[in-house]
Write a structure and sequence with these properties.
heterotrimer, A alpha+beta, B alpha/beta, C mainly beta, A: alpha+beta, Dna Ligase, domain 1, D-amino Acid Aminotransferase, Chain A, domain 1, eight-stranded antiparallel β-sheet, 35% helix, C: mainly beta, Glycoprotein, Type 4 Pilin, OB fold (Dihydrolipoamide Acetyltransferase, E2P), 2 domains, 5% helix, 59% strand, elongated
Chain lengths: 492, 535, 167
């Protein structure tokens, strides 16, 4: 068992706070690195030690491995928790730390390289007989491509091999269209990504995003902590996650979770990871990708299992052997995570910036808040626009949704536009309530998720509030003197 | 303070007769005023619209705080001059509120002869700036005037109170710390160029605004230089090169908003310290004034009935109520400010003149503004009155009234004849403001004696030429004389010649006095602490 | 006081009239209504309007009011009248003149470009100091009369602007 007495959290914001909290409970000293723009953040205040780092931009400061290693040496940290984002999935970083004799709290670099890369992970799963979406590889061209495509059947999705973010994607519903769609996709792929290489994949309409939390020690124990449904997404990013997944047959649930464990085992996985699947409406599920780190949405799993995933991560990194067995892991009730983003849902979810003039987050039984901001702080465009996560837990899904709505009603963010109201409208939507969710939920119900129009009375009340509290209107320097104030716009 | 008990019966036949008479006068007045303010030829309006200019009243509305009053002065100036072709003398002036500050607005009306200056325009401008000097009111100049009306230049250029006085007044205003903001909305040429240039803040509108000593045609004629108005003295030239203006803006709207902003930066005026009570509306309806003013200038009415319909709560503390009964003196409150009132209830006798004099001394020592309610035929004449020193008592009244330090406000309610006009603070005695009711008359002597005298002079002159006159001819002379005399003693002639600051609806008197008193208090005065003589 | 307030992409002209003891609000051309505000806590306020009452949570910073009410959060912007007027116009053509003699270093706009007030157009060097010249108002670049490296005198017209793109 390797000794870990001081851990440097190579991250910022809410996740840094969340990790520090567990370290504190475990009696391990927690330190952070911070760029000067984050000097006043709660994470820096919470940490036992904080090391300032520099970079060309705030983000690049956190992405600079040497910054982290120097900080570790400076304070004598013997391990690094990368959180998520930044260096968390960088195998090279894990290798650099190993060279320095610093423990990386996460999988082995080789596993990260294998499973962290979409294409290699997918090839690995195909080789080992795990379900992946049938596809025509980018290596095939011309007739061979078409023939392979026919074998899979329509609908097909043509994608740029080097792409991402929805660009250069074409759905083909009829083989007659294939001959036009492929050149078009190639041309777009070339324009957007500099390579005209494309591949085709079976297209699943209205799929669900189901993922399984995995935790493995260094002694061959691979456990799953159940699944999460992360189907509510905008711009390909999750905003509401829940566990357990609603409307999922127990058999299918077991199948999915077992598959995830098998994949992890096969790849020699260690520490925390998440196996993501696409679940088609017909009940077929396919491996999508693996996240070789702690996830943003891990708290929903913690709420239903009662486990502390960060603690397990540290234990695994300390080379402890888990005494916990799969049978010990029970899920209790239902949990939903709401990601509170500084963004404008009415303007295509563009990130919003500004000062947090009022920032009250909810409290209460069954409500957990992961937060990295404080009132008065500036929300800049330098980082991801997530302000906080609200995780609610109750005995069943219906009650949890009610609690989630209550939590959002008790949330007050003024000064920066957030998606809080939008989240409320999703939670209140009947389709969400009945568990009929899929990754196309937000575009499908776009119109219904718009805020109701204001009544004239509401509009006037708002204008009155703004005017009456405005210096522009109420400045006593501009008060009309008496007796003129009594006369209205009298003219002689 | 006791409330006046009105003896007027609003149900009486007399009340209805008077009211009908006065409402007719009032309707004619409102019609004339509306005409002067709003009747413009389509061509003139079109011309302004094509230049992207706003009409003068639109400009003023944008300048003033919304929902605040505007007391327009001398709307009917020049109404009986220049064949009525220069309504309001081509100028709008008045007191309004800009960002909470009381300001004088002086705005050219370029729908009238391009805003050209006629003799009465100049007289109105000088008077407007005199008001600012006397009351320490800041000024906003909205400049859009073509320049002097050349055919009448001799009547507006050279004399002491003619055009030069405008600029002289501007300079004195500046030295007294009375702020002036000018917005140049048109070409401001020759002397007119000094209005913005002598202001503390000068804003010019790009494109339409121009300031030059000599405009492009004059430059061409004098030196042969060809230059556009914009290159010669446009907004950018003056705000970036010459420094003649301080700001250039892209539109009238922006200019007016900027003027508002500038005024908003001024310190709020600290006014003359006066105790102020809560205001109280009059107990009696001011509208009843129409039934109180008789249908003939010779019919007497009780000034207390007027006081009861102007001042707070209709309350009046009468001073020396049993002495010199033809004058009414006493204290009242106007929007919470204490004022002294001197009013007429008949011809002035020695005792009534003495009472007025003593009362005015009291007001002056205690820093109480005095309001004169004129309805005066003059001082009593006759042997016993001369023996009693009526001229001496009149002189005392003039002496004290002329030298009052406190603000004086005068209202011409009905008649204003002879030396009574002087004693009761007529135009020559620098009342801070003076307004006439539309029924009022003003002349050196009463109409009937005057017409009799004038007719006799005409007849005598003709007789000396050896002419004999038929009774019809005598009648004709009498009619001509009386028509001329009536016109020249009417409120309309008075206001046309700027002998007052405007004709007002009697029911508005309270508001008008309120605005004027508030304006007057901008100038702080100190008491001289002379003992009050019981003369 | 009268100001434009922007809410959800719409512009409203709001007039507040305060006289002793009462305040009235007029929105656009609607009838005036008595309004009042009571502060409950730092953010919580009661708004009274005629017979109506609403509790809102509110924070104000500069000309922006952030209000949570009716289960939504709103941002209201109060527009300064001078800026408003400047926004609404953009009439005559105008020129950008050299504030001092110098040399053009960099030009960051081209003839025909639509430019916004405050947008940097040209960097000039004079007395070893770089100065950025910005658009004095919204409009189009009519012409740029100097090239990088060119020297100019004080008051030289460097750039001309026009309201509309000239064909």
């Amino acid at each position: 068992m390797s000794e870990i007495t001081k851990i440097l959290v190579a991250n910022r914001g809410e996740i840094a706070c969340r990790i520090l909290r567990t370290l504190d409970c475990m009696g391990i000293a927690g330190a952070v690195v911070y760029h000067p723009v984050d000097a006043a953040t709660p994470a820096v205040k919470m940490a036992a030690q904080a090391v300032e780092i520099q970079g060309r931009s705030p983000v690049s400061a956190y992405l600079d491995m040497e910054n982290i290693i120097t900080a570790c040496r400076k304070i004598g940290a013997d391990a690094v928790h990368p959180g998520f984002g930044f260096l968390a999935e960088n195998a090279g970083f894990a290798e650099r730390l190993a060279e320095e004799g610093i423990v990386f709290i996460g999988p082995l670099p080789d596993t990260m390289a294998l499973m962290g890369n979409k294409l290699t992970a997918r090839a690995f799963c195909m080789e080992n007989g795990f379900p992946v979406l049938p596809c025509v590889s980018e290596q095939k061209t011309g007739k061979a491509f078409t023939a392979a495509a026919r074998e899979i059947g329509v609908p097909l999705l043509i994608k740029a091999a080097a792409g991402g973010g929805g660009k250069g994607m074409h759905i083909v519903h009829d083989f007659h269209d294939l001959d036009t769609a492929v050149p078009l996709a190639k041309a777009e792929a070339l324009r957007f990504f500099g390579s005209n290489s494309v591949y085709a994949e079976k297209y699943v309409a209205s799929p669900r995003h189901i993922e399984v939390q995995i935790m493995a020690d260094h002694h061959g124990h691979v456990l799953h902590m159940g699944e999460r449904d992360c189907s509510i997404q905008r711009r390909f990013q999750k905003i509401i996650e829940e566990s357990p997944a609603p409307e999922l047959a127990p058999d299918l649930r077991r199948q999915i979770c077992d598959t995830a464990v098998e994949i992890a085992k096969k790849s020699g996985y260690r520490n925390a990871g998440t196996v993501e699947f696409i679940l088609a409406p017909d009940g077929q599920f396919y491996f999508l990708e693996m996240n070789t780190r702690l996830q943003v949405e891990h708290p929903v799993t913690e709420m239903v299992t009662g486990l502390d995933l960060v603690e397990l991560q540290v234990r695994a990194a300390r080379n402890e052997s888990f005494s916990l067995t799969q049978d010990d892991i029970k899920t209790n009730g239902h949990a939903i995570e709401l990601r509170l983003y500084a963004e404008d849902p009415e303007k295509e979810f563009m990130p919003a910036t500004g000062q947090l003039l009022a920032y009250h987050l909810p409290r209460g039984e069954g409500i957990r808040v992961e937060n990295g901001f404080a009132e008065g702080m500036q929300v800049s465009a330098a980082f991801d626009p997530m302000l906080a996560k609200l995780i609610v837990h109750d005995t069943n899904r219906e009650k949890t949704i009610d609690l989630a709505l209550q939590a959002l009603r008790d949330t007050l963010v003024l000064g920066v536009t957030t998606n809080a109201d939008f989240l409320m409208r999703i939670l209140s939507h009947p389709a969400y309530g009945s568990g009929r969710i899929h990754t196309g939920f937000i575009p499908l119900y776009q119109a219904e998720l718009l805020p109701p129009p204001l009544t004239q009375e509401q509009r006037s009340l708002l204008l009155a509030a703004a005017a009456l509290s405005s210096r522009e209107f109420m400045d006593t320097a501009f008060a009309v003197p008496e007796p003129h104030a009594f006369f209205g716009n009298w003219r002689n | 303070m006791r409330r006046i008990t009105s003896k007027i019966d609003p149900q009486s036949g007399e009340f209805f007769t008077y009211a009908a008479h006065n409402r007719k006068i009032l309707a004619a007045f409102h019609e004339k005023q509306h005409h002067a303010r709003f009747t413009r030829s389509e061509r003139d309006v079109e011309r302004l619209r094509n230049q992207k200019k706003l009409l003068v009243r639109e400009r003023i509305d944008l300048l003033l705080d919304p929902g605040t009053p505007f007391l327009e002065l001398s709307t009917l100036a020049a109404n009986l001059a220049y064949d009525g072709s220069v309504p309001s003398a081509g100028l709008v002036s008045g007191i309004g509120i800009v960002n909470g500050r009381e300001v004088m607005v002086m705005a050219s009306d370029s729908t009238i002869k391009g805003g050209a200056w006629y003799p009465l325009t100049v007289k109105k401008m000088v008077r407007t700036l005199d008001i600012c000097l006397e009351n320490h009111l800041p000024v906003v100049h909205l400049v859009d005037a073509a320049g002097a009306f050349l055919p009448l230049q001799s009547g507006l250029f050279p004399d002491r109170h003619m055009a030069g006085r405008i600029f002289r007044n501007q300079c004195i205003l500046s030295a007294k710390g009375i702020r002036q903001v000018a917005l140049v909305l048109g070409h401001s040429t020759a002397g007119g160029a000094y209005i913005p240039t002598l202001s503390d803040y000068s804003v010019m509108v790009r494109g339409t605004g121009g300031v030059f000593l000599g405009g492009p045609p004059l430059v061409k004629a004098a030196t042969g230089e060809e230059v556009t108005a914009d290159e010669l003295g446009g907004a950018d030239v003056h705000s970036t090169i010459s420094g003649t203006a301080d700001y250039a803006v892209d539109s009238e709207k922006e200019g007016l908003a900027l003027v508002r902003e500038i005024i908003g930066t001024f310190a709020r005026p600290s006014k003359m310290a006066m105790e102020k009570r809560d205001a109280e509306e009059p107990y009696y309806d001011p509208g009843e004034l129409y039934g109180i003013i008789p249908d003939n200038v010779k019919k007497q009415f009780d000034m207390r009935e007027v006081i009861a319909r102007i001042f707070d709560g209709s309350r009046f503390h009468e001073f020396k109520p049993d002495y010199g009964a033809t004058a009414v003196c006493g204290f009242a409150f106007l929007y919470g400010w204490k004022v002294g009132i001197v009013g007429n209830n008949g011809v002035l006798f020695s005792d009534s003149a003495q009472k007025c004099t003593q009362f005015m001394q009291l007001c002056d020592r205690d820093l109480i503004p005095v309001i004169f309610l004129q309805n005066i035929t003059g001082f009593m004449i006759g042997k016993s009155y001369e023996h009693g020193g009526i001229t001496k008592d009149g002189a005392k009244m003039l002496m004290v009234q002329s030298n009052l330090c406190v603000p004086k406000l005068t209202i011409m309610t009905n008649g204003s004849f002879g030396a009574g006009n002087y004693a009761m603070c007529g135009r020559a005695f620098d009342a801070r403001f003076l307004f006439s009711w539309p029924n009022s008359q003003i002349s050196v002597m009463g109409m009937e004696q005057a017409i009799k005298t004038l007719t006799q002079i005409h007849i005598n002159a003709l007789k000396r030429q050896g002419k004999t006159l038929s009774p019809e001819a005598v009648q004709k002379i009498k009619e001509e004389v009386s028509k001329d005399y009536m016109e020249k003693s009417s409120a309309y002639y008075a206001t046309s010649e700027l002998w007052d600051d405007g004709i007002i609806d009697p029911a508005d008197t309270r508001k008008v006095l309120g605005i004027c008193l508030s304006a007057a208090l901008h100038r702080k005065i100190n008491t001289t602490y002379n003992g009050v003589l019981r003369i | 006081m009268k100001r434009r307030i922007d809410l959800l992409g719409s512009h409203y002209t709001v007039t507040i009239l305060t006289r002793p003891g009462e305040t009235h609000m007029t929105v656009d051309t609607e009838a005036p209504r008595p309004v009042a505000i009571t502060k409950v806590t730092d953010t919580k306020h009661l708004i009274h309007m005629g017979e109506n009452r609403a509790q809102v949570q509110m924070a104000v910073k500069g000309n922006m009011a952030y209000i949570r009410a009716f289960d939504r959060t709103f941002v209201l912007g109060i527009v300064n009248p001078v800026e408003q007027a400047a926004q609404e116009t953009g009439s005559s053509s105008t020129t950008i003149c050299a504030p001092m003699p110098g040399m053009v270093v960099e030009i960051t706009a081209a003839a025909g470009d639509r430019v916004a007030k405050g947008q940097p157009l040209m960097t000039i060097e004079s007395m070893k100091i770089l100065t950025v010249l910005t658009a004095p108002k919204n409009g189009h670049i009519a012409g740029i009369l100097f090239n990088p490296g060119d020297a100019f005198d004080k008051n030289a017209v460097l750039i001309t602007l026009a309201e509309k793109k000239e064909m």
